[in-house]
Structure formats: structure tokens, C-alpha cells
Amino acid sequence: MGRPLSFPRIVPDTEPGGLRSAAERVLRSNWRSGRRADGTPYGFTCPAPRKYVHQWYWDSCFHAIAWRSFDPERAREELRTLVRAMSPDGLVPHTIFWGGRARWRRAPLYATAAPFGSAATAHTQTPVLALAWELVGGNDPAFVAEGIEPLARHYDWLDRERDPDGDGLIAILFPDESGLDDSPKYDQVYGWLAHWSPGYMLLVERHRRRGYSARAIVERFDHHLEDVLFNVFYALSLHALHRMSGLERFGERAERVEAALMERCWHDGRGLFFDVAERCERRVTLSTWSALTPLALPGLPEDVRRRLVEEHLLDPRRYSAPVGIPSVSMDEPSFRAGFDGFRCWRGPSWVNTAWLLVPPLRELGYAAAAERTVASLGAAVGREGFREYYNPLTGRGLGARDFGWSTLLVDL
Ligand code: GLC
Asked: Is 8 a residue whose pLDDT tops 60?
């Protein structure tokens, strides 16, 4: 797996054609393909050539969504590669090491079955797969049909293995299973075991000893939560799988997740959706973009969705920032606009946030806010290139360069 050198790239202009070709260049230069030692073929986009060299579950889904406007075959291959990494019982790994192994220094931080030598992690990530499969499948019935069996296996696994209290909401066992690794909303739940703390290695070891079984872990410890963002993508994916397969159980499950989000996570006083954590099932009442994600569920009551927009997204003290949508409300004491000592998701704006929230803003009639968000990110990308995230106050590009899912901007 050759790794081409990559240099900071400045996109020449913000004119849509310029952004499109720059996005395509990033996707093409991040593409990795080959065969694993056991002969399994792979083809995926690494999130960032110098920082993230493996395949990540939700990144790959976002890459496939972006690829479809440039090279639909690559979009399909990216998703097929994820399916090839699926375990026989239906777990799609969070990280897959195809061409290499986890670098030894980072190895203890990966939630793998064995401390060294595993081909992938034994934990998962926000399950965007069916949603991406449907978007990529578009009018390709053969590709859609090919996905039904493995996708059903994956979503049945989530339902069977990751809903230990049977309320319809999936529980995550690690903060990074949502993809929002260091979000301040996890600080209270994970404490010294947080993703950014050295204690995280102990969390991995402890879960490893229990075979990553949600039942065994939830019974004994308090470090788990029913995460709003994870469950929103789960519901969106269940709806997609229902549409693709016609299998009623997925449509029913999606409605159950939506009802549970309303019943268990909606906080009428604050007008936000909060995660439910620990065995005592307490709500984690912190305002992060995760609390706004149910906006993307058209099945939720319209007045609830409008409250998310009017009381939060449009409020200049909260989420209406000069650039993009901040990952933490600007009025939270934990909000940090810029680089924060290697911790991410503590304030900066990411492109996948806008990708999820801009379409419902348009749908509900907030076109000016939607276009302002897209234009501000377009200008930041034009100036700084496709970075991992951006300072929401200044637009400064931060984190990795040539970051794959930032190319989702072309989809908006
Ligand atoms: C960071 C992000 C996570 C992403 C990974 C690879 O860890 O927090 O969401 O999947 O990088 O890009």
C-alpha cells in the first residue's frame, strides 16, 4: 500500500467547479487498494494520508456518498470493502487495518480482540452503512439487491447485541463508537477513562476481557450510553434498509427508535435531545450538535424539529456561528473554538454536521440559514483546503489535511 506524499493544498477558488475538482483530487489521492495477506481484496479512501491511514466505518460511508458524484464504481467498492470486513455475526468494525497493522505505539488504543495482530477492531462506529448504500445504489437495483443480506445481518446484530435493556435505543460502550471521540458530553460519563485520557487504555482492556459483550459490560459498569447521534443515524439507516428490502421489521424498528428518542432523550425544558447514560439511565444535559441531530428525522413532530432550529441552530449565542455549525454550543463552558490539545469535537465545525443538518433546514423553510452555512464552509474550504475541521469563529482550518469526508461539501 504505497503512501504518496501529500502537501497542504490550497484550493484555488470557491467557485463550485474549483471545489469539485479539488474534492475529486483529495478522494483520488486518498484511495488505497490491494489485497490483504489472506487474499481479500480491498479498496477504500483513507481519511487523511498522514494522520489516518486505515479504513474507518463512518468515514467510508461519507466517502462513498461523496464518490458517487465522481466515480460510482469507487463508491460501490468502498462500501463493498466495509461489508467484506463484517464479522459473520454482523459486526462492522470501527477501524479496519487492511494493508498494515495498527502501528505499535497506537496499538493499545485500538479496541481489538487481541492486543496485537488483529485485522480490525472489535467495536463499531455510527452505523451509516444502509443510508450510504441506498444513496450510492440510486437506480442500480443489482447493487441494492446485493446489499440486503449483509445489511440485514449488520442491523440485526445491532438490535440483538447492542440494546441490552430492549428499549429500542442502541448503547455504545466506548465514546469513540459514535465517532465523536472527545466530545465534552462524554467527560462526565467516562471521567478518567475518556478517549483523550491515558485511562482509555484501561477501558479497552476491561471491555476486551468481557469479549466486548454489551450485556456483560452494562451489567457490571456505568461506562456506556444510549447516544443520540448514533441512534439518529441508526434510525435513518433502518428506514433506508426498509425501503431497499421491503422487510417490515426494519421499518418498525426505525419507528421504535424515533419513539424512544422522543420518550427518553427529548428534554422539553431545554428543547434538546440528550444521551441517556449509565445503569441509572441519567440524561447527560450538555448541548452539543448531537442534541440537534434528530432534526434529520422527518418522522418526529414538526414543532419539536422547529424548536431545535429556532431556539438553537439560529441563535448566534449558540450554533449560528460565522463558519459552519459548531460541534458544541458556543454558550457551553466546555466550548473551545480552536485546536484543543489533540482533543476533537469540542467546538470546531465539521462538514458532516452540515451535511446532516442543512437538508432538513431547507426542507423546513430555513433556506437563508442553510445557504449561509454552506457558503461559509465553502469559503473556508476555498481558503484553507479540505481540513478535518474549522474554527467556527474565524474559519481557520484545523486538524488533518486533505480530509476525506470534508469533500461531502460537494453533496450540499
Ligand atoms: C477521528 C474522528 C472520528 C473519525 C476518525 C477518522 O478519530 O473523531 O470520527 O472516524 O478520526 O477520520
From this structure: no
Per DSSP, the three-state class of 18 is helix
Dihedral pair phi/psi, residue 288, rounded to 5°: -125, 170
Q: What is the pLDDT of residues 271-321, one digit of tens each?
A: 999 999 999 999 999 999 999 999 999 999 999 999 999 999 999 999 999
Which cell numbers in the block locate residue 141?
A: 437495483
Please work out whether the CB of residue 179 comes within 6 Å of at least one atom of ligand 1: yes
**326: Cβ below 6 Å to ligand 1?**
no
Give pLDDT, residue 149.
98
Mutate to test the pocket of ligand 1, among 26, 59, 94 (most ligand atoms within 8 A of CB): 59
Q: Are strands 282-284 and 389-390 parallel, antiparallel or unpaired?
A: unpaired
Q: What is the mean pLDDT of residues 264-277?
A: 98
Ligand 1 pocket mutation pick from 46, 50, 52 by most atoms within 8 angstroms of CB: 52
Cα–Cα distance for residue pair 359/366, rounded to 1 Å: 10
pTM, entire model:
0.95
Does position 16 have pLDDT exceeding 70, yes or no?
no
DSSP string of 99-164, one letter each residue: TS---TTTGGGS--SSSSS-SB-SS-----HHHHHHHHHTT-HHHHHHHHHHHHHHHHHHHHHS-T
